[in-house]
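We treat protein structure as text, and this decision shapes the records that our systems exchange. We quote a single record here, exactly as it is kept in our systems:
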Amino acid sequence: MVDHMRGVANILETEKADHVHVLGISFGGWLAQCFVRSYLNKVKTVMLSNTSGHGPSATQMRLALILVPLYPDRVFRFGMKKGYLRLLTVPDSDREFWEAYIEEVTLSTAKNFILAQRKCFLDFTTNYTFLKDDLSDWPGRILILESDNDQAFNKSAREALKSLYPAAKVHTFHNAGHMPLCSNPKEYVFVVRTFLKESQEK
């Protein structure tokens, strides 16, 4: 996670971006929460989309690090594709596109990428704990974007995230699944734009 944060910080330095709005989706939401705590002076707003305030089971991640290298490529790609499709909630008119996209992503994803990702998950779970008063000296604003039928983060995880940031503005998408940006892009973009506009006015 530290490497991820340094990478983002280096990009901002290269682009001469002194103050930014951070949108983190799913795993990106974990990274966003780590980043704002490490770079308070750079972040103006944080948008946490379909994520949680804590990571997955450490035991599950350790097991994945052992098992993934052992899977034959065919089994590995089948499992990954099945996992992506489980999270896919889109209109029927868009489904063919997204299924083809998932097929392409599955074929081009190497085991090393998944292993690196799981190591980040494990690092986040074991080394990061967030508290309500962590950002008490930060003047920025937070937007929480959630779905009422998110397959990746259940109601308990969603409520825990909102409890962690009681002052955050919350928008709930209905029947939009884990990726409302894909399943309901117009509403998603409108909500984000409105939040950013409100933040600039305050």
Summary: The chain has two domains: 2-54+129-201, 58-117. The chain has a mean pLDDT of 94. Residues 2-54+129-201 form a domain with the Rossmann fold fold (CATH 3.40.50.1820). The chain is about 55% helix and 10% strand.
